[in-house]
Each structure stands twice: as structure tokens, then as C-alpha cells.
Amino acid sequence: MSATEPVITSYAEAPAKTVSVGADTFAYRELGPRGTIPVVFFVHLAATLDNWDPRLIDQVAKTRHVITFDQLGVGASSGRVPDTLEEAATDAYRFITKGLGYDKIDIFAFSMGGMIAQDLVVAHPALVRKLVLTGTGPRGGNNIDKVVGTTYWDIFRSLITRSDPKEFLFFNRDTIGKRAGKAFVERLKERTTDRDKPISNASFSRQLKAIQRYGRSAPSDLSVISQPTLIANGDNDRMVPSVLSEDLHKRIEGSELIIYPNSGHGGIFQNWEKFAPVAARFLTT
């Protein structure tokens, strides 16, 4: 980007890019002002570049260089989804350090992305300056392995109601939750050109199995995480139980915890007007 080139701060307008790391190709987008430590966004189960809420991305990108990316085997990235989230963390490390050349980043992670981010920080603590973990839980967390049943049940419910599965997976099914879910799904459509490829059924299945393995694994030693950490969730997360956000808060010394009332797994999306400026301020200071 040249000195005279305008800074893009709208995720809907962020150019689609790719970078090769060995035999692998990672798809990514970037926006916001350069010259700062980038904020790398780690996305959720079944998600591609098009599944980030632009209200969150745009708020952070006002003052920070933001990078979103597809894990291998997802969207426009090459390869296949790895068997474990540890391997996904290794792939992310290669993308960040070898592909883009960064040795220091901040992380904003949601759901499965938060699990991968934890594995990355545990393995490479010097890489990360600040950490935002939302809608997620620790390795070996109680009932994380039940995500498969919850996910398929909500997909079934969405099919019979002709709705987007995220309306069921991320939001409560009361009046407020239904309204928030539909608004969120509409925001995801704001980018109208150069959209990402949807995840394949095979890749989706492999991700689910990797999360199941994560939930059934021995806990990680999260005491090694000394970075400033912001944790957020809704109070009724059916995918990654809300109590696991409290568990993370207890295990990561000095972390901050926000639990939004009357909200589900997508509490940060339902409450974006409150959370976006909080996250942006945390990542800026």
C-alpha cells in the first residue's frame, strides 16, 4: 500500500488476497491502517472470510491493521482441514510468520477460532501481545465434545424453518434473539462482490471431529498465558457452555470477563453496539 493510497476501513471493501507458504495457499483479507501490530481474526466452525460481522471488523479497523483468513481446507485456501486443532494452530502460525512475515500480533477469536488461538498462544507465547477470546472454552472443557449433536440438531431446525443455521446456533429463540439473528445474517450479506467459497460438507465434518477431540483432550496449562486477555460470551451459550468462559477467566490470570445477559453463543454479535467499542479500546490501549 502506497502512502497516497486510501486506507480501507470497510470489511465489505477489503480486497481478497492469497499467500503461499510452501505447497499451501492461504486466502485472507486485510484492512485498516498499516504500521501497527496487526489484529488477526480467528473464525468459527464452518466459517469462511464472509462470516465475520462487519460491525466488529470495521470498528477495530478504524485504528488497527486487521487480518482475517481461511484455515487450510476452508473457503479459498488450499489443502484440507487438519485432524486436530493443534495442527490448525500450527497452520495459522505458518501463515502469520512465514506467509505474512509478522513476529508479533494481537488476536481476536470466536468459538472454534478461540480454541485454535489458545493452542497457538500456548505453543508460541512470544508471538501474541493481546488476546480476545469470545464464545469459546478451554481444551478438555466440560461438554465441548457435545457440539456435534447440538450443531446437527440446530441445522435440522433451520432447514424445517428455512432459516440460516446461525440463527439457531448463535442466538436465543425469543423475540430479541430472533431479531438479532436475522439482523446478523443480513449484515453478513453486505459484501456483494468477490465473496468467498462456502465450506464443503467434508471440511465441516472434519472441523466438528477436531472440536470433539479438543473437548475430550487433557486440559492445556493456560497459566502460561500472561498476555492481557479479554473474554466475552452470552449467558446462554448452547454450543460452548457459558460456564467455560468463566473457567477461562479463572485460569488466565488478570483476564477480563464480559457476560452479556439474554444472549447465546453469538452474544458479541447480538450486543455488537456495546462490545465493538470495548474490544477496539482493549486492542488499542
UniProtKB/TrEMBL annotation:
Pfam families: Abhydrolase_1 (PF00561). The keyword Magnesium does not apply. InterPro entries: AB_hydrolase, AB_hydrolase_1, AB_hydrolase_fold. Residues 39-270 form the AB hydrolase-1 domain. The keyword Hydrolase applies. Keywords: Hydrolase. GO terms for molecular function: hydrolase activity. This is Alpha/beta hydrolase.
